[in-house]
Amino acid sequence: MNVRLTQREEFAILTLDRPEALNALSFAVLEQISQAFDEVAKSPARALIVTGAGEKAFCAGADIKELRGRDMMATKRGAEFGQAVFAKLDKLPIPSVAAINGYAFGGGLELAMACTFRVATPNAKMGLPEIKLGLIPGYGGTQRLPRLVGEARALEMIMTGRTVGAEEAERIGLVNKVVEGDAVEGAIAFARTFTCYSLPVLGFARDAVRRALDLPIHEGLKIEADLSTLAFRTADAEEGMAAFAEKRKAEFKDA
Ligand code: CO8
Predict the structure, then answer these.
(1) 102 CB within 6 A, ligand 1
(2) Which CATH code fits 3-195?
């Protein structure tokens, strides 16, 4: 197995474990990631951390050695499969944090971008270098990168294939935070800033913001009104507002 799924307190931790190939995403690894996401969806975890084994890499991208000599339809099915696996992250009932602990290139950065949030260690290096191989990203990079950093920066990164360091990545919004020390510890500390809140209400917030970039604003506002109304109907909203009135800490029950 090249994917390890472990549980620590309320966190599920998915580790790509193929350090000899810088955790490159073969189709077999993608299949294992897909199964791991299914397990996470059924688990009691309140956040998922995604990281890579070893000192050097989060993930160096799709396994380049597997990509050559495939016919057009097999290539298209491959891209659609990778896209579908990463789309599962979006649909998980819990938020996810990529702990970028080294290289995150091509499909590796695309995996990180499909997470709800990203933290990176100071040595992290990120990029979509497909253009250098005569390719363009195929696992969601052309769609998620402009949503995170804007069209001009995304076009520049994709058309030059250039590498972005952790500090620049934080400045342009590609990562949420640069963390010192162990990436997973940093990701867990970051995740604790929201896992203290109601899981279903966090889900409404994610849904509303995610739709913001796909819809005209008048449609998005309707969705916000609906999801905000649903939030009011939760027991956690009742508890949160009661706790405010009683000047005490709210005890959310994910209900
Ligand atoms: N695929 C397969 N093997 C890899 C990959 C990769 N992406 N990256 C590294 N490796 C392997 C190397 O071949 C090497 O193995 P070996 O020792 O057997 O030769 C081992 O990992 C260590 O790598 P290096 O010796 O190259 O390590 P360095 O520290 O010198 O360099 C780099 C690290 C800079 C990260 C370098 O390995 C590199 O440039 N890797 C490729 C990065 C890249 O181009 N990624 C994008 C891949 S394409 C992609 O992701 C497209 C997604 C959409 C596809 C849709 C089609 C279906």
Answers:
(1) no
(2) 3.90.226.10
The architecture in CATH of the region 199-246 reads Orthogonal Bundle (1.10)
Mean pLDDT of 188-196: 98
Q: How far away, in angstroms, is 21 Cα from ligand 1 center?
A: 7
Atom 39 (ligand 1): residue with closest C-alpha?
60
Q: Residue 108 CA: which ligand 1 atom is closest?
A: 50
32-50: pLDDT as tens digits: 999 999 999 999 999 999 9
- Asked if residue 68 has its Cβ within 6 Å of ligand 1, the reply is no
Note the pTM of the prediction, 2 decimals.
0.98
Give the Cα separation of 118 and 177 in Å (integer): 7
Residue 90's pLDDT band, with cuts at 50, 70 and 90, is confident
Give the active site residues.
110, 130
212-235 b/e (C-beta count within 10 Å ≥ 16 → b):
eeeeeeeebeebbeebeeebeebe
